[in-house]
Design goal:
Elements (H helix, E strand, L loop, with lengths): L1 H13 L1 H21 L14 H12 L9 E7 L9 H15 L4 E5 L13 E8 L8 H16 L3 E5 L12 H18 L2 H24 L1 H4 L5 H29 L4 H28 L7 H31 L2 H4 L14 H13 L4 H11 L1 H16 L7 E2 L11 H13 L7 E6 L3 H12 L5 E4 L3 E2 L5 E8 L6 H12 L1 H8 L3 E5 L1 H35 L3 H26 L4 H4 L7 E2 L1 H30 L4 H28 L7 H33 L8 H6 L30
Parallel strand pairs: 5-11
Antiparallel strand pairs: 1-3, 1-4, 2-3, 6-9, 6-10, 7-9, 8-9
Length: about 750
């Protein structure tokens, strides 16, 4: 592997004009294809095999005129002050509102609240249900404007009018401020790391190239492969993250190789052969983690994971080809460190090599090497402090409650949230989370009436609507309003109780099938599906990555401690999320409006994203240790060497990623805050506590045993030479020899 990549890096450096041209042509080509491609399909959400999905598919088949997937809006109207909405004056205003809503584009029906008994018991509030003939993603600007205009006219008349539902346009809470801040912080960290604008700009440039190609490819193939526009969100975030990391690692290795006396072309070749090998295998771990989302069996998550995995693959290819090509163009004096006399592209004389080696020997070990020496002297204390600290932070994760975002979790100043609160106040907390009871029978009306009568006596049921039957009279629908809110644990208990008792109810009522569905039931099914898939997914990604890391490091214990350390960091990050967003600790500081359940998708996404980045840090740091060990260094010296060359890179990468993710904490939506906070915390815990404290402490305690591999397994596993042990050394070069590390490990 190292030999092949070294040759590839040498080719890219020497043929830099051709390589850069090919990548630019690729970017232009996929960009043109994306601009010429038809619009991507509308976002769809399905959960094959769940009761909610089966009921949804049945309603689409049996009630085609109602179009179960059509958009809808629920316009809530309240009389001002202590007035009644049923007074003649206010009634006329509500009827004018209904008439205005009926004339809006794409509206097929508006239910008059006075004709369908949609008025609260205290006669202060009513709601009008607006049905559209298109999906929410297919509504035009004119449709949104028509809804808003009708509401504004009613407000001008003195009514309090708010609206919820998927037909209501969602204001873009994310204005990109956090993302811009993250990129700015990344640029500053890279500048401090390299001390050069050119060197700092390379990782950002290459990352944006990879993301540009990946996102353009998603857009170009959207209509063909059914990739909706939202699939690019995760791809962009991960592609930018790993793109910066991978380029950062190769550029840093190139600079150190040049500073140690190698010619530029040899430095680029060796950087791609060694650091590039680590990049390839780090990328494979990320791809495994993202592609593994397919085990969840939620098509949306599968598509997002595979798309992001493809973007990571592009980032790896860019790093091992485009980066060495750019290194060939970069001004040497501002890119490389060390004796400027060596940057002529000519071999160093023996005298200059000896002078360079002498300067390296006199150089005071930097912070990374000094930290490694400290850990090696106090490994037990560092190990216990790190493990116990992360363990304490993980304690709140035992109380993790999962849920999904809804209108009740939106910002308080949105019309959806205001409509939600008005309905809860006037009609009860369960009104915003109705359940749809689907009944199949030969005489569906009779069976459904019996079901409706039985449901009225079930504890936890507030109201049950009249029966609606399809034209063929073989399917009926009853709407049930729980007595509790959509996110209340008692509502989930009610859904479970209704489903458990469905068989007995079918026998008593003559129904062939009774299914409990609706948005609330769908959320419950989704959370349960993710919960059931969590352990299989974790086992898959950790197991495959364990095998991959065993190939990379020729060790059993190194990948084992890498996986266990990852579990510690994710557990601590989930504990922090629970403490802040579920328990409400520091909620005011973070800006959390209403503490509540943690988003169901968060644990899965955190495992996938953080596992990939954690293995990046593991490979980057430990591969340099393995390289030094393979070239004859003692275990302690290898640890110090790894930190000397990799500590600064890993620290910079972790700070950059934490800054990018932390930018999302600035957004208004609590669930967006949750994602940003959780990922940022996990990255910081994993990089600075696990990889830079626990890992070297374990190496110090294990010694040579850390690199143990059974003989029979060593013979079976292919030798891929990631650390470049078989790469040829330039003649008369003193590069790569240990200097000041030895006194740190005595």
């Amino acid at each position: 592997m190292a030999t092949f990549l070294s040759a590839l890096g040498r080719f890219a450096f020497r043929r830099r004009g051709l390589v850069v041209l090919l990548w630019l042509l690729t970017l232009v080509g996929v960009g043109f294809a994306a601009s010429a491609a038809p619009p991507p399909p509308a976002d769809t959400f399905s959960m094959p095999g769940t009761e909610s999905q089966k009921a949804f598919d049945l309603l689409q088949e049996r009630f085609p005129a109602a179009r179960a997937d059509g958009a809808a809006a629920r316009v809530v109207i309240r009389a001002p002050g202590s007035e009644k909405i049923t007074s003649p004056r206010r009634t006329a205003q509500v009827e004018a509102l209904v008439a205005g809503l009926s004339k809006a584009p794409q509206v097929v029906a508006v239910a008059d609240p006075f004709k369908v008994n949609a008025v609260s018991g205290d006669r202060t509030t009513a709601y009008a249900y607006v049905t559209y003939g298109a999906r929410a993603t297919e509504l035009t600007d004119a449709a949104h404007e028509g809804l808003t205009a009708a509401m504004d006219r009613a407000r001008a008349a003195g009514l309090v009018v708010e609206a919820g539902g998927d037909a209501v346009e969602i204001a873009q809470a994310m204005n990109g401020t956090g993302e811009k801040l993250g990129i700015l912080v990344s640029a500053v960290v890279l500048l401090l790391t390299f001390g050069s604008l050119v060197a700092a700009g390379m990782p950002l440039l290459t990352a944006m190239l990879g993301v540009g190609i990946g996102i353009s490819a998603v857009t170009a193939l959207g209509s063909t492969l059914g990739l909706s526009s939202t699939t690019s969100t995760l791809a962009m975030m991960i592609g930018l993250a790993v793109g910066i990391d991978y380029a950062l690692f190769i550029v840093s290795r190139y600079r150190s190789e040049v500073a140690e006396g190698r010619q530029r072309v040899d430095a680029a070749s060796r950087a791609v052969g060694t650091a590039g090998s680590a990049v390839v295998f780090a990328g494979l771990t990320v791809i495994i983690a993202l592609a593994g989302l397919a085990v969840v069996n939620v098509p949306m998550l599968t598509t997002m994971g595979l798309t992001a995995a493809g973007t990571v693959a592009v980032a790896v290819l860019v790093a091992i080809t485009f980066v060495p090509a750019l290194l060939g163009f970069a001004p040497v004096k501002v890119l490389a460190r060390g004796d400027r006399g060596q940057h002529t592209g000519k071999p160093l004389s023996k005298r200059r090599q000896r002078r360079a080696a002498g300067r390296a020997a006199r150089t005071k070990p930097h912070l990374g090497a000094r930290w490694a020496g400290l850990v090696l002297r106090r490994p037990v204390a560092v190990l216990l402090t790190g493990v116990l600290g992360l363990g304490a932070l993980a304690v709140p994760a035992a109380s993790l409650e999962l849920g999904l975002p809804g209108e009740g979790t939106m910002a308080p100043d949105t019309t959806q949230r205001k409509a939600y609160d008005l309905l809860s106040d006037s009609f009860g907390p369960g009104f915003n989370g109705p359940l749809t009871i689907t009944v199949e029978a030969k005489d569906a009306k009779t069976a459904a009436e019996r079901v409706r009568t039985a449901l009225r006596n079930v504890p936890g049921v507030a109201t049950v609507s009249p029966v609606t039957v399809n034209r063929s009279a073989d399917t009926a629908v009853v709407t049930l309003v729980p007595a509790f809110g959509p996110t209340d644990a008692r509502t989930e208990d009610l859904v479970r109780s209704l489903r458990d008792g469905a068989d007995g109810l079918e026998r008593r009522t003559g129904a062939s099938t009774i299914m409990v569905a609706g948005q609330t039931a769908m959320f419950i099914d989704f959370s349960r599906t993710l919960d059931d898939a969590l352990l299989p997914y974790l086992g898959l990604v950790v197991g495959l990555a364990f095998l991959l890391l065993m190939l990379v490091f020729r060790s059993v214990l190194v990948p084992l401690k890498a996986a266990l350390g990852f579990l510690l960091s994710v557990g601590a990050a989930l504990g922090a999320v629970v403490a802040v967003f579920q328990w409400g600790w520091l909620a005011d500081l973070i800006g959390v409006d209403h503490p509540g359940p943690v988003m169901s998708t968060l644990p899965i996404f955190m495992i996938g994203v953080v596992f990939g980045l954690a293995m990046d840090y593991e490979v980057f740091l430990v591969s340099r240790m393995r390289e030094a060990y393979a070239h004859g260094a003692r275990p302690g010296e290898a640890v110090v060497t790894g930190f000397r060359y990799g500590g600064r890179v890993v620290s910079a990468a972790a700070i950059i990623m934490a800054a990018v993710f932390s930018g999302f904490v600035m957004e208004d939506n609590d669930f967006v805050k949750m994602i940003g906070f959780g990922l940022a915390a996990a990255v910081l815990f994993d990089a600075f506590v696990v990889r830079m404290a626990i890992v070297p402490a374990l190496f110090a305690l294990l010694g040579k045993s850390a690199w143990w591999l059974p003989g029979w397994l060593d013979r079976i596993l292919p030798d891929i030479d990631v650390e470049g042990e078989r790469l040829p050394e330039p003649r008369d070069s003193s590069a790569g020899r240990p200097s000041r590390e030895r006194h740190l490990v005595r």
